[in-house]
Amino acid sequence: MTAVRGAVLWIVASSLVGCLPADGGGEGDEDNPRAATTEERDLTPNVVLETSKGTIVLELDAEKAPRTVANFVAHVKAGFYDGLTFHRVKQSFMIQTGRLTPDMKRRSSQVQPLRNEADNGLKNVRGAVAMARAPDPHSAQTEFFINTVDNPDIDYTAPTPDGWGYAVFGRVIEGLEVVDTIAAVRTAKRGRFDDMPVEAVVVERAFVREGAQ
Question: How far apart are CA 5 and CA 109, in angstroms?
Answer without folding.
Answer: 6
